[in-house]
Amino acid sequence: SHPGTPSPPASPGTLAAAPATVRLVPDSAGNSYQGSFTVTAQGGPVTFSISDPAPAGTLSVSPSAGTLRAGQTVTVTVTAPYPGGPPVFDTTLTVNPGVLTVDILYPPSG
Question: For 27, which of 4, 61, 67, 88 is 20 to 30 Å away at the CA?
C-alpha cells in the first residue's frame, strides 16, 4: 500500500505576485498600453508560467515563463498593442504554481 499523500519534492519555493491589479497606461509613443507586475520566488527556486485567457494578440506578456532562484524577482511587462487605445477590458492572468491571479485593466481611452 502507498501513503495517501506523496512526499513533496525537496523544499520547493512558492511564488508571490504583486500588485494584484495592474491598470495599463498609454506608453510614451501613444501606440500601446503597458503595465507591469513583479513575481518573486520565496523559500526556494521556482519555475513559473503565466497563462493569459485573453484572445491571442490582445495582450503581450513578457516574460510569460521562467525560472527564479530563491529570493529573485522578475518584472513582468504586459502590453496591449492598440493604436488609439484598447476597448475597456478586464482580464485575469494566472501565475503558476500557486494559482496566483493578477487582474489586468484597460482604462477607457481618453
Answer: 67
Q: Which three cell numbers stand for residue 67?
A: 525560472
pLDDT in tens, 25-61: 888 887 788 999 999 999 999 999 999 987 767 889 9
SS3 for the chain, per residue? CCCCCCCCCCCCCEEEEECCEEECEECCCCCCEEEEEEEEEECCCEEEEEECCCCCCCCEEECCEEEECCCCEEEEEEEECCCCCCCCEEEEEEEECCCEEEEEEECCCC
Which pLDDT score is estimated for 31?
79
Distances (CA, A) of 49 to 34, 63, 97: 20, 9, 7
